[in-house]
Amino acid sequence: MRIAVIGLGLIGGSLLRALAAAGHDVVGFDADPSTRDLAREAGFRVADGVREAVAGCAVAALAVPLPILPEVVADLDGYGGLVTDVTSVKGPVRDLLAGRRFVGGHPMAGRETSGFAASEAGLFEGCAWVLCLEPHGTDLGDWLLLAGLLTGMGARVVPVTAAEHDTTVAQVSHVPHLFAAVLAGQLGASPLAGALGAGSFRDGTRVAATRAELTAAMCGGNRDAVRDELARLIGELTRMGAALERADPVEALVPLLQPASALRRAWPPRPGPTETIPADIDRLLELGRSGGWVTAVNGTELVGKRPETDRFLP
Amino acid sequence: MRIAVIGLGLIGGSLLRALAAAGHDVVGFDADPSTRDLAREAGFRVADGVREAVAGCAVAALAVPLPILPEVVADLDGYGGLVTDVTSVKGPVRDLLAGRRFVGGHPMAGRETSGFAASEAGLFEGCAWVLCLEPHGTDLGDWLLLAGLLTGMGARVVPVTAAEHDTTVAQVSHVPHLFAAVLAGQLGASPLAGALGAGSFRDGTRVAATRAELTAAMCGGNRDAVRDELARLIGELTRMGAALERADPVEALVPLLQPASALRRAWPPRPGPTETIPADIDRLLELGRSGGWVTAVNGTELVGKRPETDRFLP
Q1: Do the two domains A2-160 and A166-265 of this chain adopt the same fold?
Q2: Does B22 lie at the interface with A, CB-CB under 8 angstroms?
Q3: Most buried among A113, A143, A286, B222, by the most CB within 10 A?
Q4: In this structure, what are the phi and psi dihedrals at residue A261, rounded to the nearest 5 degrees?
């Protein structure tokens, strides 16, 4: 299949490599001429503009940062193929692409490095790749086409609505980036903090090294969900602060810490047995909500897995 | 030198192994008979009580959890050797040991596993080990004896006061454990969170797997500093939440995230050249405050290093 990848940073560059490795006919484009040169030197066909890149392609994958997306979408006027994206917020992108053949996606494969130079074909092997599915409004054929492409690269395709995606990534990715930033900011307080920081500090702050503009675009693009989840977690931290004021702070803290300790030890969940899932929007959304994912697409039947136990249920 | 290690969990067990590997004559004790059996099976001499363990030892290292420390200290009545400890709070322990030959310590080498079975001789190789030093009240000879023992195991000995230690570890270790717990607690909200959690979630929550009782004892034992630092960081998270409400949330967030991003990329700092430091309490405390550490003790002269640059200074 002929596929265009627009934007050749860490994610777009890795997607170009992975699709090529899976045998697809890929063409890339990046607004930065030096990135285009890098991709050409790596042996890829690279166009000099969005229109040239997508001409004749069955799929156009937009791998540009959220703030750039509107101008790239404007360049797609006249393109009749299927469009997908990789940005970390799905509601606003769904609205931006309304009226087009579009299925939103989001690979959970970020890292603190960036740029084509950091890209690799294996980045998505085993990674969860959200592929948005709305009870009304998604063309199931388009969804299956992309699910086949992505599972063909080794990704675990997770079917969820844009709204469910945005709430959940605020929880497991966007707010963790803000937490990491305020923890890392403590390095400014004293050189001693830098000397005593060990494992909990190293891991708890790793993603704070992400470029501030990327983290801000990610969180700002999902502002409603991030604000709500952040407020909820600030409430939990405040409860922990109150426990520290109690007569026996240790006894008061234990019940606040115990559920998280048990949940984290049980994460990631072990996959259960392989299942066959019909190509049905409601059945696929139920799979996603139960923590499951699609591993392969065979015509109109899908192969999936879900966690072995329901211990993550509330 | 003959040294007793009381408490043979991850830290105590590793200390027993590391001191033995450095050629010392070690004896261990643990209140749990099955842990004593494990240590004996590993080839160590293990006493059946605290008094028996410390008899004739030049140093007694207490590696028990903070809540147990008072009863172990009571068992030291009549012991005239030097006492040290490894607990993660130093002010309360200094007060508990007042009137004894005592120098408080804290290796920054925790991990989410625990118990003698997880111990290893190399745990402290290159790790920062706080060794408390008070302008009035620490016997410098005792401090140098321990600094020599610890640097002999490959630890970087950081000289700081108990108060400076308690504030700094609240920042770089205790509050990060609370942050990890509230992030991991989100796994209870939906199975989807467990499916979409990727790198930022994995690392940001790693230490949430620590036993709740240990995290509670650590934070509760350092309640004043943890409460203050937690309140300060809740304030910063609240400012980020307010930035998300602004007309341009991305623009509002960037300046809040940028310092942390730069600080984290520059961490850990590269060590500067080796220095000779006189055995002087004020000079040693200055070394610790500048982010430096002792790497060796040669009689009354110490060898140290500090960060190559002062970019962590406010």
Answers
A1: no
A2: no
A3: B222
A4: -65, -45
Interval B160-178: pLDDT, tens: 999 999 999 999 999 999 9
- Least CA distance to B260: which residue of chain A? A185
DSSP E strand stretches across B232-280? 275-278
For chain A, say whether B192 makes contact (Cβ under 8 Å). Answer: yes
Name the residue of chain A whose CA is nearest to B228's CA. A241
Residues in chain B: 314
Task: State which residue of chain B sits closest to A164, comparing Cα positions.
Answer: B192
Rounded to whole angstroms, how far apart are CA atoms A143 and A145?
Answer: 5
Q: Given B177, B191, B307, which is nearest A291 (Cβ)?
A: B191
How many angstroms separate the CA atoms of B158 and B147, rounded?
Answer: 9
Cβ distance B186 to A195 less than 8 Å, yes or no, reads no
Q: Do A203 and B207 count as a contact with CB atoms less than 8 A apart?
A: yes
Distance from CA of A112 to the nearest CA of B (A): 9
> Cα torsion at A224, A229, A234, A235 (round to 10°)?
110
Q: Among candidates A232, A311, A156, which has minimal Cα distance to B190?
A: A311
Tens digit of each residue's pLDDT (9 = 90 or more) over A44-60: 999 999 999 999 999 99
Q: What 8-state DSSP symbol labels residue A76?
A: T
Q: Which CATH number fits domain B166-265: 1.10.3660.10, 1.10.10.10, 3.30.70.100, 1.10.287.1080?
A: 1.10.3660.10
A128 touches chain B (CB under 8 A): yes
Q: How far is CA B41 from CA A213, B27, B33, in A?
A: 55, 14, 12
The domain locations on chain A are 2-160, 166-265
Confidence of residue B98 (pLDDT cuts 50, 70, 90): very high
**What architecture is the B2-160 domain classified under in CATH?**
3-Layer(aba) Sandwich (3.40)
Give A206-264 pLDDT, tens digit per residue: 999 999 999 999 999 999 999 999 999 999 999 999 999 999 999 999 999 999 999 99
Q: How far apart are CA B47 and CA B256, in angstroms?
A: 55
Interface test with A, best of B106, B161, B172, B254 (most A CBs within 10 A): B172
ipTM of the complex: 0.91
Residue A134 and residue A277 in contact, taking contact as beta carbons nearer than 8 Å: no
Cβ-contact A286, A310 below 8 angstroms: no
- Nearest Cα neighbor of A151 from A169, A133, A124, A122 is A124
| Residues in B touching A123 (Cβ below 8 Å) | none
